[in-house]
Design goal:
Keywords: Isoprene biosynthesis, Magnesium, Metal-binding, Transferase. The protein has 295 residues and is mostly helical. The chain has helices at 3-20, 30-40, 47-58, 67-85, 101-105, 107-126, 135-149, 154-163, 171-197, 201-228, 231-234, 240-243, 249-253, 255-274, 281-289; strands spanning 94-95, 98-99. Helix 7 (135-149) packs antiparallel against helix 9.
């Protein structure tokens, strides 16, 4: 398998799915729709939608049922990026290689378009009921998405991150932030794919554990890239963690040890996935690629 070619195909597929569910830019709320779409069409890895599709395939899923969840997940993720970039939080000017939403549309529209994307995600997920007779799978998938997004997931992690910005952190609290702010949506993506395809409870729990480790590895790699990459490669400002006095895995243990942790987590996640009775070679290669990514 040529991983780069396959990744390109899957990224293009995710991009096509996402664009099907974007709001129309018309009427009195046209500016909000434009701001939403500006952020949603800025590119990016589309990792989370790809993980939904690939985990869905891992458990034998076919057809379009996972597609509303692919688009919704990217909307939830993008909403968090818009809000992360606001002056009240990270105050960043660039994201995915271009000006952030609030720099183009203003701070108020940055706030509103982020909230609108979060709501749009649930509007889109509800359309999945029209694609299957098995309503229970859709309900369960939506419960996972809601739980991993809210106070016990991504938003809870973000709140603790903001509350402790610039303060010294214990490793325990840093892990809490990472496992919620980043891992939660990775977990939601892979668990949703598994649920929609009819995976067993035991399989879903294994997927959740593997996804949690993938998410933690992904965030630690972000820490490393913030000090080792360039703004051109990364598509956003570098050294922002240092500028904002953020405690990271790199500041706690150094780049080399942090890189070792990324490999350890990624290897164990692959091991967990390999232990399932189903196989998806691309999914395993995708997880392994997180170790060497440069953006």
């Amino acid at each position: 398998m040529n991983f780069k070619e396959e990744l390109k195909k899957r990224t293009e597929d995710a991009e096509s799915v996402i664009r099907k569910y974007l709001p129309e830019e018309k009427g009195f709320a046209r500016t909000m729709a434009e701001a939403m779409n500006y952020s949603m069409t800025a590119g990016g890895k589309r990792l989370r939608p790809i993980l939904i599709r690939e985990t869905y395939r891992l458990f034998g899923g076919e057809g379009e049922l996972c597609e509303p969840f692919m688009a919704a997940m990217e909307m939830i993720h993008t909403h968090s990026l818009i809000h992360d970039d606001l002056p009240a939080l990270d105050n960043d000017d660039y994201r995915r290689g271009r000006l952030t939403t609030h720099k183009v549309y203003g701070e108020a529209m940055g706030v509103l378009s982020g909230v609108a994307l979060l709501n749009r995600a649930y509007e889109v997920m509800l359309t999945a009921f029209d694609l299957t007779e098995d309503k229970e799978r859709v309900i369960k998938a939506m419960q996972i998405m809601a739980g991993k997004t809210g106070i016990n997931g991504m938003l809870g992690g973000q709140s603790v991150d903001v509350e402790n910005d610039g303060k010294p952190l214990r490793r325990e609290m840093l892990d809490y932030i990472y496992k919620n702010k980043t891992s939660a949506l990775i977990e939601a993506s892979m668990m949703t794919g598994a649920v929609l395809a009819g995976a067993s409870e035991a399989e879903i729990r294994t997927v959740e554990q593997a996804a949690g480790e993938i998410g933690l590895a992904f965030q630690i790699q972000d820490d490393i890239l913030d000090v080792t990459s360039t703004q051109e490669e990364l598509g956003k400002p570098i050294h922002s963690d240092e500028k904002n006095n953020k405690v990271t895995y790199v500041s706690l243990m150094g780049s080399a040890a942090a890189a070792g942790k990324v490999k350890e987590l990624s290897d164990h996640a692959v091991e967990l996935l390999a232990g399932l009775s189903r196989k998806n070679e691309f999914l395993e290669l995708l997880v392994e690629s997180l170790v060497s990514r440069r953006k």
